[in-house]
Design a protein that fits this description.
By secondary structure, this protein is mainly α. It is built from six helices and no strands. It has one domain: Four Helix Bundle (Hemerythrin (Met), subunit A).
């Protein structure tokens, strides 16, 4: 759980950096804006990649769930597939920004990154739901009640 939490904290910090870069004024500052967004996407890519590698480890929480709770294996597989999809989307956006458009559509880039961030939040929710469900199934208790005592 500690590794998962640390990974998510790093990813959340990268998301905040990206949101800040996206929110900066772009017209007249195209190169600076693009460079800052690219740096933030690179940071997010590293955080997501590290998180995915840890989640794929044999001793990770997701691996443990897949091993010990067979009915949840498909959902674990789905989460892992979604990690890959998010990573590919980040890579595509990075490549697009590396090949600068002389007249970039800032709003389109912002919108597409917003979709990416929505997908990342959705993934977080699905993963949290899976962990809580597995805990409840195993111990017939809510994780929040157990950690409070």
């Amino acid at each position: 759980m500690d590794t998962r939490r640390a990974d998510q904290d790093a990813t959340l910090e990268a998301v905040h950096q990206l949101e800040s870069a996206l929110g900066a004024p772009a017209p007249g500052r195209e190169e600076t804006w693009r460079d800052n967004v690219l740096v933030a996407l690179d940071t997010l890519d590293r955080a997501i990649s590290f998180e995915q590698r840890n989640a794929d480890e044999p001793d990770s929480l997701l691996s443990d769930l897949a091993r010990t709770q067979p009915r949840l294996r498909n959902r674990v597989r789905g989460l892992r597939a979604q990690y890959g999809q998010v990573g590919r989307t980040v890579a595509a956006l990075r490549q697009e920004l590396r090949d600068p458009d002389p007249e970039p559509d800032f709003e389109d880039i912002r919108r597409r990154v917003a979709w990416l961030l929505t997908a990342l939040r959705h993934q977080r929710g699905r993963e949290s739901d899976l962990i809580y469900e597995a805990y409840y199934d195993s111990f017939n208790a809510d994780i929040d009640n157990e950690t409070a005592t």
